[in-house]
Write a structure and sequence with these properties.
Elements: H1 5-13, E1 18-20, E2 27-30, H2 35-45, E3 54-57, H3 72-81, E4 86-91, H4 98-101, E5 106-110, H5 115-123, E6 128-133, H6 145-152, E7 158-159, E8 173-176, E9 183-186
Parallel strand pairs: 1-7, 3-5, 4-8
Antiparallel strand pairs: 1-2, 2-6, 3-6, 4-5, 8-9
């Protein structure tokens, strides 16, 4: 299904930025070890430097090197909701560059449930993307291929079609799982309660 595989790989390896569909909204991403590409994402979005990116992959195993051992509550959430519309913020490891986390010692990780996104991750080096939503800061997220084209044409190096695997249009829920405590930063598609463990 996924076309232009070699072009996608080459684009990312050369420090490019790509726009792509996920299960929630459209994403804008690059390889995590490319500081120049991350900088380009911030420039494209006119994004505030203190707002971190997150890391996404097709498999949780690809993300584990980027974080410290995940607390038990996080592991429970991963088993229940990955792949899906949940972003888990937890302590980062040395492998996660501070230019992704805006100098914070935590990083968000997510495994979207979308076939096109999975195929992109399967082919790219390292299988992980540093990512954010495909829109200018303070503007609505792109929910369709058409909106992604409107938002990112002339800005992203590649905009990959969704091949009919459309985004649902509702952002992911974002939760923190530091010190085995659950903290909800944003309620999205998955409704969670901070008293989940009580």
């Amino acid at each position: 299904m996924l076309e232009d595989k070699e072009q996608i790989i080459k684009c990312l390896e050369q420090g490019g930025v790509i726009a792509y569909v996920t299960d929630t909204v459209w994403g804008l991403g690059c390889l995590p070890d490319s500081a120049d590409a991350v900088k380009k994402i911030y420039e494209i979005k006119k994004r505030e430097a203190q707002k971190p990116l997150i890391l996404m992959s097709n498999e949780i195993y690809n993300l584990l090197d980027y974080v410290e051992p995940i607390p038990k509550i996080g592991q429970i959430l991963i088993k229940k909701y990955f792949p899906g519309a949940l972003t888990i913020v937890t302590d980062k490891s040395e492998k996660t560059p501070e230019y992704i986390t805006s100098g914070m010692q935590t990083v968000g990780i997510r495994v979207p449930d979308n076939e096109v996104f999975k195929q992109i991750c399967e082919i790219i080096p390292g299988h992980v993307l540093a990512t954010t939503s495909a829109n200018l800061s303070h503007q609505p997220s792109a929910k369709t291929y058409k909106q992604a084209l409107e938002n990112m044409s002339g800005l992203a190096d590649m905009i990959i079609p969704d091949y009919g695997f459309a985004a649902k249009g509702l952002e992911s829920t974002v939760v923190g799982v530091m010190n085995n405590e659950l903290r909800i930063f944003r309620q999205g598609e998955i409704l969670l309660d901070e008293n989940l463990l009580d």
